[in-house]
UniProtKB/TrEMBL annotation:
Seems to be required for the assembly of the photosystem I complex. The chain crosses the membrane at residues 6-23, 55-77, 97-122. It holds the Pfam family Ycf4. GO terms for cellular component: photosystem I; plastid thylakoid membrane. InterPro entries: PSI_Ycf4_assembly (IPR003359). This is Photosystem I assembly protein Ycf4. It is a multi-pass membrane protein. Belongs to the Ycf4 family. GO terms for biological process: photosynthesis.
Length: 219
């Protein structure tokens, strides 16, 4: 039943996004980079794992692991296959070559982890605040399996406050929502602690939901 509801919500958001261009002018929508909002609704798109920094680390660990494997294979056969270096500088297979082999295997598994995160776009989704129906909907993509699609609904009456876990850097931190029944719910990615203008976003959302916001230092 929940899967059917999630599908209907996704379909509704797609249709709503497609119709935004044709919304009458008397409805004032504020456009943002990762979402849109009106007087009664706020759609906040949450970016997932398909970020430039993740592509960098996935490629870096992959190339680094292949390089380590090349050195370990060269040490096993006692020569350089591509003549990049002289055979006099090839390291012995025991124990350095064996150690590099384990490092290469660990690097490949780490690179595979990064590429799977990117491929499945883990962590992406949306936060939908609906003042008309007094409901907040959260949707996230997880790993394939039972929790591939994570959907959560919270009544606005259950929202107690917003909590901004601030960083020493200006305009950065992680924004949370404190609720009575569901506890603390992160509204911004917890692994990305430098979202731009997150403090301003917190204040705007606090006014939109008519709830207080608390700023606590990150420890």
């Amino acid at each position: 039943m929940i899967n059917v509801y999630v599908f209907l919500v996704d379909l509704g958001l797609i249709v709503m996004s497609a119709l935004l261009v044709h919304v009458p002018k008397f409805i004032s929508w504020g456009s943002e980079k990762h979402g849109c909002r009106s007087q009664d609704a706020w759609l906040d798109i949450v970016p997932g794992s398909r970020k430039i920094i993740n592509f960098f680390w996935a490629s870096f660990t992959l190339l680094g692991s292949l390089g380590v494997f090349y050195i370990s294979v060269s040490s096993y056969y006692g020569r350089d296959f591509f003549s990049f270096i002289s055979s006099e500088f090839v390291i012995p297979f025991l124990p350095q070559g064996v150690t590099l082999t384990f490092y290469g295997i660990a690097g490949l598994f780490l690179s595979l982890h990064w590429w799977l995160l990117i491929f499945w776009n883990v962590g992406s989704g949306y936060n939908f605040f609906d003042k008309k129906n007094r409901m907040v909907c959260f949707f996230r993509y997880g790993f394939p399996g039972t929790y591939r699609r994570i959907f959560l609904r919270v009544r606005m009456e259950d929202i107690q406050s917003l909590i901004l876990q601030a960083n020493p850097e200006p305009s950065s931190g992680v924004l949370y929502m404190q609720t009575r029944e569901q506890g603390t719910i992160p509204l911004t990615p917890v692994d990305d602690r430098t979202p731009r203008n997150v403090i301003q976003k917190g204040w705007d959302l606090s006014r939109f939901l008519s709830v207080p916001m608390e700023i606590v230092p990150y420890s």
